[in-house]
Amino acid sequence: MSPSGPTRHGDPGRPLLHHVRGHDPAYDPEEGVWCVESSDLAGVNAEARSVEELLAKLPGVILDLLEQEGSAGDGDVEVPIELVADASTCVRRSTAA
């Protein structure tokens, strides 16, 4: 990634076609899988047993979608992928002696 943002390999002045961000991966307890709930790129549909496996599947899914829509372009294209999830927990400390 260049200081001014991501670019195509070999041509620093040529911007990328996409930056894909998956939002709120969701866990389906009935199926035991994580899936992408929403994405900046329409049609991203993937599921896996762990968030790490889901992230590993996304490059192939995204490349397939870009080829189907004709956005892959010529030459090497770098597409940054982010899988954004929030997690939280709570701890309770008892003040009783």
How many strands in all?
Answer: 8
Kindly identify the CATH topology: TTHA1013/TTHA0281-like
Q: How many domains comprise the coordinates?
A: 1
Mean pLDDT: 76
Q: Please, what is the oligomeric state?
A: single chain
CATH superfamily annotation: TTHA1013-like
Give a quick account of the main beta sheet: strands, pairing sense, barrel closure.
3 strands, mixed
> How are helices and strands ordered from N to C?
EEEEEEEHE
The CATH architecture comes to 2-Layer Sandwich
Over the alpha carbons, how many angstroms does the gyration radius reach? 18 Å
Distance between the termini: 55 Å
Total helix count?
Answer: 1
SSE arrangement:
Layout: E1 7-8, E2 11-15, E3 20-23, E4 26-28, E5 33-35, E6 38-39, E7 47-48, H1 51-69, E8 81-84
Parallel strand pairs: 3-8
Antiparallel strand pairs: 1-2, 3-6, 4-5, 5-7
Report on this structure:
The chain has 97 residues and is of the alpha+beta class. It has a single domain, classed as TTHA1013/TTHA0281-like (2-Layer Sandwich), CATH 3.30.2390. The protein is built from 1 helix and 8 strands, in the order βββββββαβ. It has a 3-stranded mixed beta sheet with strand order 6-3-8, with helices on one face. A 3-stranded antiparallel beta sheet has the order 4-5-7, covered by helices on one side. A hairpin with a 4-residue loop joins strand 4 and strand 5. The radius of gyration is 18 Å and the shape is elongated. The relative contact order is 0.24. The N terminus is likely disordered.
Any key phrases for this structure?
8 strands, TTHA1013/TTHA0281-like, 1 helix, 97 residues, single chain, alpha+beta
